[in-house]
Amino acid sequence: MTDEIWLEITEVEGLIVLPTGNRKPLAPLIKQLRVLLVDLYVGWLADPSLSIGISRSNNSYVPKSRYNGLHISKEIIKVIDALVSVGLLDHHNFQNDRVYGGKFSRTSRYRPSSKLQARFAKLQDLVFDISYNEKKETIVLSDFETDETGKAIKAKDGSKKRLLIEYGNDDYPFVAPWRLTLNRYNELLARSHIDISSLDRPYIERKTKDNKIQRVPIGRSNQYVQRIFSRNSWELNGRFYGGWWQQVGKSYRKDIMIDGCPTVEIDYKGMHVAILASEQGVLMGDSYDWYTLDQIEVGGLDKASQRKALKLLVLTAINASSKEKAFKAYQSKRTSSKDKDTGLYEFPRLNKAQLDLLLRCFIEKHPYLEHGICSDRGIELMFMDSQITDIIITKFVEQNEPVLTIHDSYIVRADKAHLLEETMAEATAIVFNNRLPAEQEGQLTQEQTMHVLNQFRQHDFDTYLDLIGKKINPPQHKPTQTNRYKNDYNKFNKWRERQV
Description:
Elements lengths: L1 H9 L18 H18 L5 E3 L21 H10 L3 E4 L15 E5 L1 H8 L17 E3 L3 E2 L5 E2 L21 H16 L3 E3 L6 E5 L5 E5 L8 E4 L7 E5 L8 H4 L2 E3 L2 E8 L2 H9 L23 H17 L3 H14 L15 H14 L12 H21 L5 E2 L3 E5 L3 H16 L5 E3 L5 H14 L1 H10 L12 H17 L1
Parallel strand pairs: 4-10
Antiparallel strand pairs: 1-3, 2-3, 5-6, 7-12, 8-9, 10-11, 12-13, 13-15, 13-16, 14-15
Helix pairs in contact: 5-11, 8-9, 11-12, 13-14
């Protein structure tokens, strides 16, 4: 198809598609055309009405950058214009800005025309044959900090920073092992089937802060993982970002299945608080509740609501450089936690005086943590927890077992829960010479365990024997499997068999 379309667009009279001047793009234009067609095809498979954004600014293309592994050049714009000219692309100028309703959008949108869609329809299903992040850099160095999804948080003071910083491999030899680990990890993810089995469609929709609808694809096109460092430092941030499982809530994550198996999620309890305590020689047991204050009641809250408020406040205070910024961050997080269906907020409303009282009481109860509160330590602590995640990923890649990371929690197949718990303990012992408390999400009581085991015994005897033989806790429930999920898993298995 690429060869045929290339002949069509180069035969248009007066149409210039070859590079001008002495410079030639690092990637031949026909290869850039193929990349563009693959991108359009993937979007069309997900939803024929989707458009893809393509910048028309020359500054958006740096062919020799390490962050442009396919060496896409500004010449791609000529290819795009040629496709529009021959009627294979529809151009939607400055549309579909999901943040400000198009007010500040400067990105053109393109969609396969009916002619190109008809040609796509004649192709066999290629979804599992496509590499979605070919030659993409896994180790990213940036001036900017990131949000929870890895998206850059740009400076508001007008200072000039670089979003992506170029670096040489020879200058930083420690980067090579990091990259090797991530390359192997992404290869493992690519040959694993990871999905939310209860979904009728391969995506979820969620509301953004400005009440816009955002679609999160669930599948291979959105499961690539990078490690991002911030503030132009190899010792700040360094967390692992990417993978749709980081973009969905716990209500969806409980239905994740890996290669047809139910999963469990295990997380460290108050990791950053525990790290700060560990620095002062304080290690609390698994049953310790960091965020309970029995001596006060603030804002008429019950104990559960007050605990939830205090936990968010402390975590934001660790990341903030002052109390004022911590309180502002709490209010912002509370605002964004509003449930779109119920209209209720996840976190209670508290004024500055109430937040200040909560924080002071927390420090009085845990004076050894005062050095880490409102100290801008968060980004440093992120690097520490990224070292733990690096050890866990390395161990599971060696075992050829997928593990899905969400910064301080990890999702694995239910029959690998014990391996994960052991690895988490080993990782904290290596990084901190201490064991940080961890717990399984939705841990079952003995009575609940027996009930779930009985269900597996009646409906899935092979899984029951596996669970009994390995003496492990079963998953909290057996996720619903929709027809969409079953069909996709069957197609994936057939594709994987052909690769052997």
